[in-house]
Amino acid sequence: MENPLKRIRREYNLTRVEMAAIFDTTPASYYMYERGEAFPSRKKLKLLSDFFGIDYEKLVEEFSEWKRYLTQKRREEALEKVKAKKLLEEVNHARKS
């Protein structure tokens, strides 16, 4: 699943700096939105929907889906790390025996 901001930015052939200006934020903050490290407020989404003429409710729903996707993906990654660590501990324990 692609981040809605990234999809919109690519669709309109804009740079991250240009998107940051539309969002009235710094490029660093905008980049955090694209990476999923932070999420724009509803006020920021409203700016975006007004600027591009995108349906606000649809945009909010798209971001909700994106957040759910990231949350699930991060849970799965954390679980895999726990499993890998446990396996490594078992291998190390077997070597010591």
Written account of the structure:
This protein is an all-alpha fold. Helices cover 79% and strands 0% of the residues. The chain is built from 5 helices and no strands. The protein has helices at residues 4-11, 16-23, 27-35, 42-52, 56-96. Helix 2 (16-23) crosses helix 3. The longest helix is centred in the last third of the chain and has 41 residues, at 56-96. The chain is elongated and about 65 Å long. It starts with a helix and ends with a helix. The relative contact order is 0.10. The model has no long low-confidence stretch (mean pLDDT 91).
> What is the number of helices?
5
Estimate the global geometry from the Cα principal axes.
elongated
The secondary-structure element order is: HHHHH
Low-confidence blocks of residues: none
What average pLDDT do the residues reach?
91
Span between termini: 46 Å
Keywords:
0% strand; 79% helix; mainly alpha
TL;DR of this structure?
With 97 residues, the protein is an all-alpha fold. The chain is built from five helices and no strands. Helices cover 79% and strands 0% of the residues.
